[in-house]
């Protein structure tokens, strides 16, 4: 029976694929013909010809993601400095601008397609019991393929960074950089002292919500959980509200669009796309100066020199890997691979943190109006009218962000206990919740199942029975995990993916908090607002663990272990720390320990993960890093390094 059900599901996928592809082709051609604002041909970034590459630049930036784009734009503001940006991917295809389509570009040619090591404790419903980790291979990095949610984190996150010995990273200092990067366009918050205007990254509300959004907000209000002013980046964070996104006129505002399209023509800034960095070049001791980068472009190897600094901004997976293959990291990992040790740094690749989520709790609902839907049923939206609405009338389905129409931050009882030990009423939630207006059955498994890498067998058994029914998901995220993972390279070749040991739920408190989050989500579904539309948990998910009591803590733990999903926030693998921390990789000025003229400036330097989505904090790090570099080189004109 199981095999037959899976077989039927597989054939249904195949029959659904053709019409979906037809409408996407219509959309592509319609945007090309009718939306010059999206095509934006005049401002698209052009790579220099490789024969125009200079032998030496003041600064060489490796990685054109969220951090690298901001760094290149800010450093090239000084016309006396020459800057080179190396990015392994190409420019963003113009369909990346459409919020609704963001999951399509995961597990695609624009994705590095990492996956974590198999586990018997998480990702049990996934292919090979591996969590899939999308990482962007495109200019703009993950800001080009993410869900665009603009969350800065909590003020206590940054004060904690400073308390750990990282001077200059407290909330009062970093708030300036959040405001500097921002162009707040939401009229409700434009005059808030917490927000900025005229910065490269535009911030707006998502357009085209489903009818579920006001019902979600009613449910949160009935539990007393509504946010006081609807701004997670303002005075307080706790509560539920529709989130802001990195959007411009309803479309994606990536770091590429925000920073690079207005700076790439500067004569002192060169950009090489499809340039894969293979190794950092280091002078031997006693100098240990990082003098350049070797990279591959169009099947040929090139070497470029940096007269001032090499800046590593390749992200929380690629930055530590490039350090390791260049001989910078724990000696015991490098020497067996024949890599010459340049600097023993045991913390490289360690301290890995991520926001693990549970995405499987699907609730079906019933509309009171016949022949109308409360949620998004994708095949009904993927049609000629939706394409016409978008390309000609600039409205409709493709502007929507169903994955989190309402977002919430809440305190588990464990966080409340800790707050009682510190100070009562502290606003530092340990749970984030996404209230999404479709479930895994809403698109027939074409995108959601594929993106999460759920097996055909599991999908057929648990989600096929609620196929194309009105449904929603409330997915809790663990904000500050106690568990720590690590990376392990298996080759001296930077093209070979490292082994990623996520170690989700290693610490028992992490699972306890996740269960609390799932129970809070379920309480929301029992409010009058959601019971009015008959919100009902998909009973077929019980098939994963039929031996446990339904709706018990063990039931919720089962869901967490089966439907574990990254929210694409790996950080911490090149930890910023004072000299007293043996696992520190960079100092508070972002300089790599024991080496000269090398900094890491991206999400890998975070000592602890922020309370919320990590793209905005990553850009903030680049903004602050650019100012640190300017300060150091102007203050130390003989070389910038003590």
Automatic annotation (TrEMBL):
Keywords: FAD, Flavoprotein, Signal. Residues 315-329 form the Glucose-methanol-choline oxidoreductase N-terminal domain. FAD binds at residue 138. It comes from the Eukaryota. Gene3D superfamilies: FAD/NAD(P)-binding domain, Glucose Oxidase, domain 3. PROSITE patterns: GMC_OXRED_2 (PS00624). Its cofactor is FAD. Belongs to the GMC oxidoreductase family. This is CG12398.
């Amino acid at each position: 029976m199981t095999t037959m059900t899976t077989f039927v599901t597989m054939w249904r996928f195949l029959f659904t694929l053709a019409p979906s592809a037809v409408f996407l082709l219509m959309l592509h051609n319609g945007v090309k013909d009718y939306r010059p604002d999206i095509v934006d041909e005049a401002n698209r970034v052009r790579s220099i010809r490789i024969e125009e590459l200079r032998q030496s630049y003041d600064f060489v930036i490796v990685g054109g993601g969220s951090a690298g784009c901001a760094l290149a734009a800010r450093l090239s503001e000084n016309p006396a400095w020459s800057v080179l940006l190396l990015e392994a991917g190409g420019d963003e295809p113009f369909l990346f601008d459409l919020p609704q389509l963001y999951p399509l570009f995961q597990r695609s040619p624009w994705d590095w397609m990492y996956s974590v090591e198999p586990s018997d404790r998480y990702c049990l419903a996934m292919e090979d019991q591996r969590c899939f980790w999308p990482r962007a291979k495109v200019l703009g990095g993950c800001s080009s393929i993410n869900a665009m949610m603009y969350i800065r984190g909590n003020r206590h996150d940054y004060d904690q960074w400073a308390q750990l010995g990282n001077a200059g990273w407290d909330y009062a200092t970093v708030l300036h950089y959040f405001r500097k990067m921002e162009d707040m366009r939401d009229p409700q918050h434009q005059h808030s002292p917490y927000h900025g205007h005229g910065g490269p990254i535009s911030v707006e509300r998502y357009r085209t919500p489903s009818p579920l959004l006001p019902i979600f907000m009613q449910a949160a209000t009935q539990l007393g959980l509504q946010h006081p002013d609807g701004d997670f980046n303002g005075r307080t964070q706790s509560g539920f509200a529709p989130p802001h996104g990195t959007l411009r006129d309803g479309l994606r505002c990536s770091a590429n669009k925000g920073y690079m399209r207005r700076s790439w023509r500067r004569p002192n800034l060169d950009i090489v796309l499809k340039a894969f960095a293979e190794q950092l070049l280091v002078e031997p001791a006693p100098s240990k100066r990082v003098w350049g980068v070797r990279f591959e472009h169009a099947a040929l190897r090139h070497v470029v020199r940096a007269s001032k600094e090499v800046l590593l901004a390749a992200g929380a997976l690629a930055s530590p890997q490039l350090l390791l293959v260049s001989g910078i990291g724990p000696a015991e990992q490098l020497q067996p691979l024949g890599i010459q040790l340049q600097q023993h740094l045991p913390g490289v690749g360690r301290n890995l943190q991520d926001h693990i989520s549970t995405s499987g709790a699907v609730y079906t609902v019933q509309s009171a109006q016949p022949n109308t839907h409360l949620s998004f049923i994708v095949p009904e939206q993927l049609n000629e009218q939706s394409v016409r609405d978008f390309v000609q009338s600039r409205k409709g389905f493709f502007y929507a962000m169903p994955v989190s129409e309402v977002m919430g931050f809440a305190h588990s009882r464990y966080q409340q206990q800790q707050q009682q030990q510190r100070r009562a009423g502290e606003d530092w939630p340990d749970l984030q919740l996404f209230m999404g207006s479709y479930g895994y059955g809403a698109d027939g498994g074409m995108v959601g199942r594929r993106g999460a890498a759920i097996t055909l067998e599991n999908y057929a058994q648990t989600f096929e029975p609620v196929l194309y029914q009105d449904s929603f998901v409330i997915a809790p995220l663990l904000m500050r995990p106690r568990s720590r993972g690590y990376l392990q390279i298996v080759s001296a070749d930077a093209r070979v993916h490292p082994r990623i040991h996520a170690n989700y739920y290693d610490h028992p408190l992490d699972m306890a908090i996740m269960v609390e989050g799932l129970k809070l989500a379920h309480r929301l579904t029992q409010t009058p607002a959601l019971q009015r539309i008959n919100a009902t948990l998909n009973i077929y998910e019980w098939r994963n663990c039929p031996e446990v009591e339904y709706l018990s803590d063990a039931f919720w733990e089962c869901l967490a272990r089966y439907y574990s999903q990254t929210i694409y926030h790996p950080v911490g693998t090149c930890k910023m720390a004072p000299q007293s921390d043996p696992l520190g990789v960079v100092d508070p000025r972002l300089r790599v320990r024991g080496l000269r003229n090398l900094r890491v400036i991206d999400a890998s330097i975070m000592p602890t993960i922020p309370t919320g989505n990590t793209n905005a904090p990553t850009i903030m790090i680049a903004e602050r890093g650019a100012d640190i570099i300017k300060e150091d080189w102007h203050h130390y004109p003989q070389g910038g390094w003590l």
